[in-house]
Amino acid sequence: MSHQRVDSRGIAAKLQPTFQGSNHHLRTLALLLFNRKIFPASENISSSLLPINHSNRRKRPVDTNSHNQNPRLLNVGCGQRFHSSWTNVDLEPADRSVTKHDITQGLPCETGSYDGIYHSHVLEHLDPDDGIRLLDECHRVLKPGGVLRIVVPNLERIAKLYLEYHTKAWASEPGAAINYNWMKLELLDQLVRTHSGGRMGKYMSSDDIRNSGFVQTRVGAELSRCQKHAPANEAANESRKKKWKLFRSNSRTKLARWFVRRLMGKKGLRAFDEGMFRNCGEIHRWMYDRYSLREMCLQRGFIKFRVKSATDSGIEDYASYQLDAEGSSILKPDSLFVECRKPMVAGEFYKNAA
């Protein structure tokens, strides 16, 4: 299904004739809603739909002077996994030490100020164009020779496993069908889900998972957290639920939902709620493999693109930060780990692009 951005002013203009005469109050509500007075940009739940304001992106720099660590490292969209030696940035900070910032507005850092930048399972949540702008910002913020480390779900591996178990299930091999069903979920669910957790969350939370060993090789400790309701998982779930409840209880949202139901009925209200959920940041808006990611990085001016492991990195002493692995345990085994560098000098790109 194709999801396109909506021109709210255009919608308001089309609706305007509908509310002439006795329904003046509904017309007023329509104009307020669709001219973004009900949802001003600062309160919009969707971060990935906001354009980057290049004129303002350097006016609120992160205070990096308090970090005396060398090298200087930046974790973009850190979520609940971050290290105190890094500058950590996220739209919804999990800790007071994390800087709150919408990364689609650019990175709040000075040009050429960091030796390394890392973002894990962030890029796939952005529209492709926003993803390109994020890479451009990483290139700007990195020092010459600096390392960009990217972690995303590995589309190539997912697709291969899906086809492998599809072939085995078609041939009626024992145990293949249940692994095929999981791989289909892994491929599609986070692209199409309409509620938090989706079908994958429901499956992992069930008491009887016949292929738990296989699923654990794909999602790691996340499976155990879902089944045992560990504090970290409960905190994440409660955070998502709280965010959605706050959104639903917001007075402006209540007014908007009342208006949508009055105008379009129950089906329209369900569509409105689904659209707002899909803009909350949980779904995947794109997927990447090593080839598409390499081409994307090279086109943005990076060089020396390499596929890495969870602990191998050009960032000095990277494994000690435990961002991708704890000892031999990979936190997200379904991931693709890659790194590239900003050229040291002008013209180096053409000599060392690959």
Descriptive keywords:
43% helix; 354 residues; 9 strands; seven-stranded mixed sheet; Rossmann fold; two-stranded antiparallel ribbon; alpha/beta
CATH architecture of the domain at 64-154 and 287-352, by name, is 3-Layer(aba) Sandwich
- Strand fraction equals 5-15%
Spatial extent as radius of gyration: 22 Å
What's the total count of β strands? 9
Broad shape: globular
- N- to C-terminal separation? 35 Å
Kindly report the spatial arrangement of strands forming the biggest sheet: 3-2-1-4-5-9-6
According to CATH, the homologous superfamily of the domain at 64-154 and 287-352 is Vaccinia Virus protein VP39
As a percent range, the share of helical residues equals 40-55%
Number of helices: 12
Instruction: Characterize the biggest β-sheet.
Output: 7 strands, mixed
Low-confidence stretches: 1-22, 29-68, 230-235
Q: Could you provide a short overview of the structure?
A:
The chain is α/β, with parallel strands linked by helices and 354 residues long. The chain contains twelve helices and nine strands.
